[in-house]
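pasting Ribosome maturation factor RimM for the record, 175 residues
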Amino acid sequence: MRKEDCFYLGKVVSKYSYKGEVLVKLDTDEPEIYENMESIFVSIRGNLVPFFIDKCRLHKSALLRIDFEDVKDEEAADRILGAELYLPLSLLPKLEGNKFYYHEIIGFTIKDSTHGDIGVVTGVNDTTSQVLIEVEKNGKELLVPLTDEILTKVDRKNRTLFVSTPEGLVDLYLN
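structre below
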């Protein structure tokens, strides 16, 4: 399995018991849907390795306590401490309406209420305090803030995002 075909679920943050159980900090708004997993991919030295799960349950709501089949002591748990966990993209819950996963909108056309077609989504930058949609038009890059006020509609069928950008934003990049 390749990382490109998976989504990041979380990271092993600590050992839980001397029997090899670990705690995972999940990167999700709905941790409860991952309580009954049978397997997961663990990133070890850049490769995704399948690990099978004996038991998995929520721990203090934000963490997932996992008992892996092949991790049965502290030494084995130490080897995966800090490892990132991944699941196939096919297991992502489907989103509707104006909700979407960032990877899902790459390649979508952006249509602004004032300027019309302002380019194609090339990425989403979520490393800043404000999430930005990276858009390319005629070799120029635009950064459009991702807010409920700016994003007006997601048209999955036609692969289009409709936005209403603040006055002057598009002109700043394209003129």
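The longest strand covers residues 47-59.
The chain has a mean pLDDT of 92.
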